[in-house]
Write a structure and sequence with these properties.
This protein is 39% helix and 14% strand. By secondary structure, the chain is of the alpha/beta class.
Length: 409
C-alpha cells in the first residue's frame, strides 16, 4: 500500500535510514504530510527507540515502544542487513526510486556502506541527500558521537538549565531531538526540493545537529559579547522581572507558573488575589522594588497559591491579563487539556501489535488540506515483501531467495 494521495507531499518518496530521535522525527513530518517514507532497518542492530519505553501495557517488545511509535507514524518499514553483500543492490534500486535519502548516523558511516552522498547522486543525480551527524561531515570534531544530551551539553543549554547552587540539570529530555534539529532539517529538505523543482539539481545537505541549538542562545551570546557577562543557571529567576516563577497549588505536586512583566500585570495579579494586605503595603507597585524583594514576594505569593486550584487560577489570571500556566502532567495534557482536544491534536490509530494507540498530530492545520498521521509506526520489517515486490519489481521467488540468504533481516 503506497502513501495516500491528496496530501501536500504526496508523490515524494524518502529512503529513511534514520534511527533514534532527530532523524526519525524529521522523516515522520514528511510521512505525515503524505510522502512515502520507507524506514530501512535491520534486526541485527535495532533502532534504539524500539528498545526504549514506555511499552504498551508495560510489556517490552521491539514493536511495543510508544516512543518509537510516535516518532515513526505514516511510514512503511523494511528490514535489510546492509552488511550482507547482496543488500547494496537492493538498496540502490530503492534509492533510484526515491527523492530523498536521509540518515542521522555518525559522519562517514554511510560511506562505509557505499551509500555516501556521492554514491547516491551517481545513482540518481537529482536526489536530495540529508546527513544529520552530530558535528557535520568536516572539522576537527566530525567524528564525535553523542545523543541529544551530548548536544545540549556542547552548545550550552545544560549550563543554563537548573538551579544556581546545583549541577547543570538539562531540560529533562533530549530536547535537540524533538524540536530544533528535526524542524531545521525539514526546512532544509523543503528548500532543497524547491531548488530541484526550479533547476533539476540534486543536493547534499550536510547538517550538524549541534548548530540549530545555538539559535536558542542569541540573548546569552549577546550578553557575553556586548556586556561581558557569562550567563549561567538561575532556575526560574528572571534577570529583572518579579514575581516570575513556579508556585505550589492545592493538591499533590500541583503547580502554576506566573510571570509578571510590568506594573499593570502586577496590579491585575493583586486584584485577582483579592487585594491582600501583604501585597498592598510593601511598596511593590514598581518593578525595581518587587525585584529587590523577590524572595519574600515569592514566599508570600506561594503561600497564597498553595490554597488555589491550578487550573482555575490559570483561567482567572489569564482573564485578568496575567501570563500564567498550570504545570500539567502527561495525564492533563493527553486527557483533559481542552485546547488540545478542540484542535484534535491527539490521534488514535490501530497498531497491529499494540492495538489502538495515541499519537501526536502535526502542530499545524491547513485550511484546504487536512493533514494528520495516516498509519501507525511499522512493525519491524512489516512491509518488506510489499516494497520489494510492488515497488522494486522483485519476483516472489527472488524475495524468498533473499530471505533464505538472510539479506532481509
Amino acid at each position: 500500500m503506497s502513501a495516500p494521495t491528496g496530501l501536500p507531499l504526496a508523490g515524494l518518496r524518502v529512503a529513511d535510514f534514520c534511527w533514534i530521535g532527530a532523524g526519525s522525527y524529521t522523516t515522520k513530518i514528511f510521512g505525515d504530510l503524505g510522502a512515502d517514507v520507507i524506514k530501512i532497518e535491520t534486526s541485527t542492530r535495532l533502532d534504539s527507540l524500539r528498545l526504549a519505553g514506555p511499552y504498551k501495557d508495560g510489556k517490552p517488545g521491539v514493536n511495543r515502544s510508544g516512543y518509537f511509535a510516535d516518532r515513526n507514524t505514516s511510514k512503511r518499514g523494511i528490514t535489510i542487513d546492509l552488511k550482507h553483500p547482496r543488500a547494496l543492490d537492493v538498496v540502490r534500486r530503492l534509492i533510484a526510486q526515491s527523492d530523498i535519502v536521509a540518515n542521522n548516523f555518525a559522519a562517514g558511516v554511510m560511506e562505509k556502506f557505499g551509500l555516501g552522498p556521492d554514491d547516491c547522486l551517481r545513482i540518481r543525480p537529482d536526489i536530495i541527500y540529508l546527513a544529520m551527524s552530530m558535528q557535520g561531515s568536516q572539522g576537527p570534531q566530525r567524528d564525535f558521537r553523542g545523543t541529544g544530551s551530548s548536544i545540549a551539553a556542547l552548545t550550552g543549554i545544560q549550563e543554563l538549565s537548573g538551579l544556581p547552587e546545583r549541577i547543570p540539570a538539562g531540560t529533562g529530555t533530549n530536547y535537540p531531538d524533538h524540536l530544533p534539529n528535526p524542524c531545521h532539517a525539514a526546512f532544509a529538505l523543503l528548500a532543497a526540493l524547491r531548488h530541484r523543482r526550479r533547476t533539476g539539481q540534486g543536493q547534499y545537505i550536510d547538517f550538524a545537529q549541534t548548530e540549530p541549538m545555538l539559535a536558542l542562545l542569541g540573548p546569552t551570546f549577546l550578553d557575553l559579547t556586548v556586556n561581558g557577562r557569562r550567563q549561567t543557571r538561575r532556575g526560574n529567576v528572571h534577570p529583572w522581572a518579579a514575581p516570575h516563577g513556579v508556585y505550589p497549588c492545592a493538591g499533590t505536586d500541583r503547580w502554576i507558573a506566573i510571570t509578571v512583566m510590568d506594573d499593570a500585570q502586577w496590579a491585575a495579579l493583586v486584584e485577582t488575589m483579592g487585594r491582600p494586605a501583604w501585597a498592598l503595603g510593601a511598596g511593590w507597585e514598581t518593578m525595581p522594588e518587587r525585584y529587590r524583594d523577590r524572595l519574600e514576594l515569592d514566599r508570600l505569593l506561594g503561600e497564597w497559591t498553595a490554597g488555589q486550584d491550578a487550573q482555575a487560577l490559570m483561567q482567572a489570571l489569564q482573564a485578568a491579563g496575567v501570563p500564567a500556566g498550570a504545570v500539567q502532567d502527561a495525564r492533563d495534557v493527553t486527557r483533559t487539556d481542552p485546547q488540545l482536544a478542540h484542535r484534535q491534536h491527539w490521534v488514535r490509530l490501530p497498531h497491529a501489535e499494540m492495538g489502538e494507540s495515541i499519537y501526536n498530530n502535526l502542530p499545524f492545520r491547513f485550511s484546504q488540506t487536512p493533514v494528520r498521521p495516516t498509519r501507525p509506526a511499522p512493525l519491524l520489517g512489516e512491509h518488506t515483501r510489499e516494497i520489494l515486490q510492488d515497488l522494486l519489481g522483485l519476483a516472489p521467488a527472488e524475495i524468498d531467495e533473499l530471505e533464505a540468504e538472510q539479506v532481509l533481516r
